[in-house]
């Protein structure tokens, strides 16, 4: 057995940083060192202990292998900050034998390549390892950061390339595998995974899981804490802390109806149960589509179901993403664009076209605003290979909103009677496969374009796929309810109507969002006071409103909002909700100082993904000081 020792490692890190060769080591998927054309993981068996005191997972991972190249004798895996203790291999149920391995120096974005040299093409490899307390894909919460305040909590967030920080594996969406897991926790802690969670499992600190459908690594997930279950329907329910579970069941009571609507459009739900796990407010995303168990931010429990499109979104991934998976992150629109489109269809079916249209308009306004910031070469759906960037940066509106817009364009040109079955057949014929944009385009040509020639032109297709921005011929969504908001806003801006007199009684979150986004970038502070007195934006529990209101107060120097804003930034770790306020703050020297103060207090409660985003923003602002 050979292992690199640390002093050697640090010099190699320096060396490696200067060597472009590292990029060439990542083959099929530029974000993974794995070589799936040589050998693939087909099954993973985990045996892990969760240690809240040490903040680590430790145990073994057994990888079952399918060799594709008969001359190959190496297994290359992705890892990040893992301590690898042992590597063994075997055939059948024979004795495990120790194998040689090299853990390469750590690359800042991609982690450490683990190369295992095998004298023959073994069927199984077993790795003994432990995670680092700083694992980029795990968050460890002290009891004080939970709703109950008594039990610690931990959860994973593997997408895009963080699974490698808690399991050594081929961390690319082009490889799928089944898994089993045996997980040990303190006796009062419940553990869940993206697998067959049994609502009736005794809580005893010893849990077993099975995921019989093959999934890509980014859908590996685990969570543990004081979690209880309440059903919504026979196959759907909510896991949450006892303090949150009833509110969540009420808010998300339409989940079963959402599953039924999606099944009627796109075919059967193929994952048996669909449960929601409500996380503490530090969860860095809105939702994460972990199979059978979507992870959900508590910030969408608004009390009026106004933000449940997020559940529709994560559920929709059970078809677009989890069933038919983007083969690499440059194809992410196949996951997120399709899902945003399906999400809107679910919302339309359950809550009506007015609401679905408002949601489309709001997200497209976000896209239009983002276009000013996104480099033109990244504004396309058909991205060239090796755009080399951090896949996290791809959490952008091009994949989501331009992708969904393209599908809506196809829907309108072909009609739902043709387009809906087409989409269903895309899911059916590629179920449990990883797919590229090129494959989708080929399928589109043969299954849709060839069958109704002339409905769209080649030039239109190419424009959608390969031109920046939004095509001039994209369908436009009108919203009479938003027209009314425009009129109301105008009347207030022109001082024809005082804030208290505005007719907003029937407004939903969508209308408030649209109202706030349509205000001038800066508003005299005393006018914000007037709005605040009428509508109590400062201190709002609705994150979608807070996310737009606080930046406006910053730009408008309405300092009275600062204490509530500071609370919001410290309590919530969902990146999308808090980054706009940090971004507004760092525009001035005084704001930057305030942002740094808040961040220093908030950091212990933030997820590593959120901390990384805030730190990058603060560093950039300090490098180019504001006036
Ligand atoms: N799969 C994404 C979250 C994600 C994307 C995590 C890329 C890491 C990298 C999830 O389905 C998602 O899109 N969540 C959105 C909510 C949605 C309603 C737009 C979010 O978290 O804001
Ligand atoms: Zn998504």
UniProtKB/TrEMBL annotation:
GO cellular component annotations of the record: cytoplasm
Annotated GO MF terms: alanyl aminopeptidase activity; metallopeptidase activity; zinc ion binding
Catalytic activity: Release of an N-terminal amino acid, Xaa-|-Yaa- from a peptide, amide or arylamide. Xaa is preferably Ala, but may be most amino acids including Pro (slow action). When a terminal hydrophobic residue is followed by a prolyl residue, the two may be released as an intact Xaa-Pro dipeptide
The record's free-text note on cofactor binding: Binds 1 zinc ion per subunit.
Binding site for a peptide: 157-159, 284-289, 574-576
Enzyme class: hydrolase
Signal peptide span: 1-23
Residue sites binding Zn(2+) per the record: 313, 317, 336
Protein EC: 3.4.11.2
This protein's name: Aminopeptidase N
Species name: Arenimonas terrae
């Amino acid at each position: 057995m050979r292992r690199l020792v640390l002093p050697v490692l640090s010099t190699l890190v320096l060396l490696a940083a200067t060597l472009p060769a590292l990029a060439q080591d990542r083959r099929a998927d530029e974000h993974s060192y794995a070589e799936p054309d040589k050998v693939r993981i087909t099954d993973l068996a985990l045996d892990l202990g969760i240690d809240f005191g040490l903040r680590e997972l430790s145990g073994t991972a057994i990888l079952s292998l399918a060799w594709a190249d008969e001359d190959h004798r190496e297994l290359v895996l992705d890892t990040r900050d893992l301590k690898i203790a042992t590597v063994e291999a075997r055939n059948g149920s024979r004795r495990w034998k120790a194998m040689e391995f090299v853990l390469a120096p750590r690359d800042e974005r991609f982690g450490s390549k683990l190369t295992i040299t095998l004298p023959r093409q073994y069927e199984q490899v077993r790795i003994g390892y432990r995670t680092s307390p700083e694992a980029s894909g795990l968050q460890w919460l002290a009891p004080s950061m939970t709703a109950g305040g008594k039990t610690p909590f931990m959860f994973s967030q593997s997408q895009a390339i963080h699974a490698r920080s808690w399991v050594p594996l081929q961390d690319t969406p082009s490889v799928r595998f089944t898994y089993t897991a045996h997980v040990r926790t303190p006796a009062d802690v419940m553990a869940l995974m993206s697998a067959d969670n049994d609502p009736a499992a005794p809580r005893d600190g010893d849990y077993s899981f099975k995921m019989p459908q093959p999934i890509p690594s980014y859908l590996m997930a685990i969570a543990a804490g004081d979690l209880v279950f309440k059903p919504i329907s026979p196959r759907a329910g909510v896991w949450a802390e006892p303090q949150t579970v009833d509110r969540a069941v009420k808010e998300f009571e339409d989940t079963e109806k959402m599953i039924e609507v999606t099944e009627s459009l796109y075919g059967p739900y193929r994952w048996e149960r669909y449960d929601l796990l409500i996380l503490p407010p530090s969860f860095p995303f809105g939702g994460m589509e972990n199979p059978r168990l979507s992870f959900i931010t508590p910030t969408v429990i608004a009390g009026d179901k106004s933000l449940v499109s997020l559940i529709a979104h994560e559920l929709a991934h059970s078809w677009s993403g989890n069933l038919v998976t983007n083969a690499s992150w440059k194809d992410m629109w196949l996951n997120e664009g399709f899902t945003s489109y399906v999400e809107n269809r679910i919302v339309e079916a359950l809550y009506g076209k007015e609401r679905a249209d408002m949601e489309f308009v709001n997200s497209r306004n976000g896209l239009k605003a983002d276009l000013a910031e996104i480099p033109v070469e990244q504004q396309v759906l058909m991205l060239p290979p090796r755009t080399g960037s951090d896949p996290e940066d791809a959490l952008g509106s091009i994949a989501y909103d331009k992708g969904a817009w393209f599908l809506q364009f196809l829907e309108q040109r072909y009609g739902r009677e043709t387009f809906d079955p087409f989409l269903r057949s895309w899911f059916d014929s590629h179920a449990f496969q990883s797919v590229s944009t090129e494959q989708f385009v080929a399928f589109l040509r043969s299954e849709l374009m060839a069958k109704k020639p002339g409905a769209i032109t080649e030039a239109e297709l190419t424009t959608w796929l390969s031109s920046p921005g939004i095509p001039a011929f994209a369908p436009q969504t009108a919203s009479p309810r938003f027209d009314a908001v425009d009129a109301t806003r105008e009347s207030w801006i022109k001082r024809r109507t005082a804030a208290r007199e505005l007719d907003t009684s029937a407004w939903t979150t969508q209308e408030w969002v649209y109202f706030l986004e349509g205000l001038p970038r800066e508003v005299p502070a005393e006018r914000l006071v007037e709005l605040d007195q009428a509508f109590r934006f400062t201190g709002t529990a609705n994150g979608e409103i807070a996310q737009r209101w606080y930046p406006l107060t910053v730009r408008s120097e309405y300092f009275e909002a600062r204490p509530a804003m500071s609370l919001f930034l410290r309590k919530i770790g969902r990146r999308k909700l808090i980054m706009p306020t940090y971004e507004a703050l760092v525009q001035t020297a005084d704001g930057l100082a305030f942002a740094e103060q808040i961040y220093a207090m908030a950091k212990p409660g933030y997820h590593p993904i959120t901390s990384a985003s805030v730190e990058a923003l603060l560093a950039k602002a300090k490098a180019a000081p504001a006036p």
